[in-house]
Amino acid sequence: MSFRTRALAVVAVLVLITAVSALYLGTQQPKLEGTLIVYGPKGIRSFANEAVRVFSQRYGVNATFVHYGMGSIEIANRLISEKSSPTADVILGIPEFYAKPVIESDVLEAYSPPNLGEIPLNKIWDPSGHILPVDEGYIVIVYNETIVAERHLPVPSTLDDLLDPRFKGLLIYPNPLTSGTGLSFLTWVLTEKGEDAGWQYLHRLKENVIFYPSGWTDAMDAFIRGEAAVGVMFNTDTVYSETPNLNSTMSRGFVYREGIALVKGAPHKEAAKKFIEFMLSKEGQDLAAPWGYVYPVRPDATLSGDVARARIPSSLVSFNPSLGGNADVWRDRWNREILGS
């Protein structure tokens, strides 16, 4: 056999192998449904809407983000209420500290996407595999520089600083019944001070509170309108273009982690799995900073915009997983003792 003949034979074999491989993969890869419904809190709508837009274009799926005007706790509880007949395929933005009640409600299906190994182990916070990490941020004490200067108020740095009577009628923090940011703050207080001293602190703090915004969006609106002088928000909010007077000493902060999960009984399960894989890919993770103002969990993801410019707190308080089962107990108690009294 001549060299030319042998070369042609090799090429023919390679073409055949490629064709068979493509056929095999085509039959092995599940067909994606044409529709996808993603639940999540209103506060992440910019990030989520951009993610579903890019995903839809790439995979030919009509993906929609639905928030119902709710915060992260509200939307999680909405999902639980729909357990018998789920509407959503995926839920995005589940806070780490509210994961246990959601998992125990049996509305999620454990799923390990093929690219999970590309996420560092120290970023994976749900050992059960129901909720996959997507992003994280830092909750800090913030203040309006203009109001603080005009009224000759002290600059707050610590939780105890917020108890200063000079902040009476000038302080906000989001409602932990409806907001993941608010529940973050509640968890921060109880983690740092312990439960007994923490509840005493919250009772004292309410003397300074104007109102409890339903979520991140309402809280930001209050700062934008100049209704609040001090409060609790994300570190990246201090470089947000619409709140140029918002600042923080960044002396201490609470780590806020969010995840994504496959809904049990999802109407469009294969599209849901592919979306989760997309959100953990570099392409999906690159959207976290510019659109979500949060930090991606992939080490190779790009930091840009406000996230790249924001300062990180010098001291961090992390969630204690052993406290997870108390989230609903804390919310009920807060409703009775703080909001209701």
Characterize the structure shown.
With 341 residues, this protein is of the alpha/beta class. It folds into 2 domains: 162 residues, D-Maltodextrin-Binding Protein, domain 2; 145 residues, D-Maltodextrin-Binding Protein, domain 2. It contains 13 helices and 12 strands. Strands 1, 2, 3, 4, 5, 6, 7, 8, 9, 10, 11 and 12 form a 12-stranded mixed sheet that branches. Helix 6 crosses helix 7. About 6% of the residues have low confidence.
Q: Encode the helix/strand succession as letters.
A: HEHEHEHEEHEHHEHEEEHHHEHEH
Proportion of residues in β-strands: 15-25%
Shape: globular
The level 1 CATH classification of the largest domain is Alpha Beta
Q: Give the CATH H-level superfamily of the largest domain.
A: Periplasmic binding protein-like II
The CATH topology assignment of the largest domain is D-Maltodextrin-Binding Protein, domain 2
What structural class do the secondary elements suggest? alpha/beta
| Mean pLDDT over the full residue set | 90
User: Number of DSSP helices?
Assistant: 13
Number of strands: 12
Q: Which architecture of the largest domain would the CATH scheme give at its second level?
A: 3-Layer(aba) Sandwich
Summarize the main sheet: 12 strands, mixed
- Unreliable parts: 7-27
